Amino acid sequence: ATLHEYLRARAADAVEASTSAREAEDCENEAAIVRALARTCAKIGRFVRRAGLTDVKAYVEGKNGAVNVHGEEQAALDDAAHEMCVEALREEGSSAWIASEESEDVVAANPRGRIAVVFDPLDGSSNIECGVGVGTIFGLVGVDENSAAASVYARPGNDMRSVGYVMYGASTILVLSFMSTGAVCAFTYDESLDAFVLTKANIRIPTSGNVYSVNQANYRKWDDVMRAYIDECSKEKKSLRYIGSMVADVHRTLLYGGTFHYPADASNPNGKLRAVYECFPMSAIIERAGGLAISAADTRVLDFVPTSAHERMPIHVGSPADIERLSQMYRESP
Ligand code: AHM
Ligand code: MG
């Protein structure tokens, strides 16, 4: 099936199960928003693939030297991806709010809308210039009509409805969990059809895995438990894999099992990754596929309530047995 067919069927099921016209309309709108995002990601994928070529340079002139709200240098392709997403969501029309990692403020869209969209348009952008995988991450949140901007982010990750990411790697892959409880499915972009085609239905993460993924250069800045856990991984002869693109590192973790971490460290007490745009959607995908996502001993990532749209948080996601082991080590530490 194509993504369009899949969404049409799932939305029809949801409409049938709905108990009010309002709820039915929300399901239809949710499918329409996901469709718009997928179409945009196919376009972003074509730009990523052509990065460095002259026609792309005409569109995005290499690095533009701009600094985004997190103070990091922003590659121009980030800007372009952000613009493309905002444009597509505005055109689709039903989103209440649009919150992007690349924009300081949550942007108001349709005041009568009941679904807000949060996204990181191009994550891992330091990998663009050398042609290594990057991705787009998104999540949909239900809000009241005429809600305030804070209703988009000042709530736990558990509230996310549809969540997904697109990985621009050797192929362009969309991983989606549609609506609040949707199975995790992968769709591969077929250039000849200009469509995402279902390639993996109902993905379940392996119970444990042989790979751990973390920026081990930060080892000396971690707390004792994190160091002990990684020592144990190494003693157990697990393999280390780290691309430096969260989407690619988490995607591998989802399929092959194991763990991905961006812990707190001495220079970054809340880690590096943003709760709303990165940690929530990726953790929701992993948990809906049977994995676990924690930020500390017993604290689920998805229970965290951010106080700002760009707040960061520590994250450990992956196979349930492996994350449970880390959680146990934190619980037992004095
Ligand atoms: P970005 O939003 O500036 O692209 O940063 C996020 C990326 C993630 O994709 C990745 O997991 C992490 O940064 C890697 O950070 P580090 O280089 O500190 O290991
Ligand atoms: Mg990012």
Automatic annotation (TrEMBL):
UniProt pathway annotation: Carbohydrate biosynthesis; Calvin cycle
Catalytic activity: beta-D-fructose 1,6-bisphosphate + H2O = beta-D-fructose 6-phosphate + phosphate
Family annotation (InterPro entries): FBPase_C_dom (IPR044015), FBPase_class-1 (IPR000146), FBPase_N (IPR033391), FBPtase (IPR028343), Fructose_bisphosphatase_AS (IPR020548)
Domain Fructose-1-6-bisphosphatase class I N-terminal: 29-200
One term of GO molecular function: fructose 1,6-bisphosphate 1-phosphatase activity
One annotated Gene Ontology cellular component of this protein: cytoplasm
Entry keywords, A to Z: Carbohydrate metabolism, Cytoplasm, Hydrolase, Magnesium, Metal-binding
Ranges for domain Fructose-1-6-bisphosphatase class 1 C-terminal: 205-330
Enzyme Commission (EC) number: 3.1.3.11
A Pfam family: FBPase
Cofactor entry: Mg(2+)
Any one of the GO BP annotations: fructose 6-phosphate metabolic process
Gene3D superfamilies: 3.40.190.80, Fructose-1,6-Bisphosphatase, subunit A, domain 1
Family under the similarity heading: Belongs to the FBPase class 1 family.
HAMAP family the UniProt entry points to: FBPase_class1
Listed name of the protein: fructose-bisphosphatase
Species this protein is from: Ostreococcus tauri (Marine green alga)
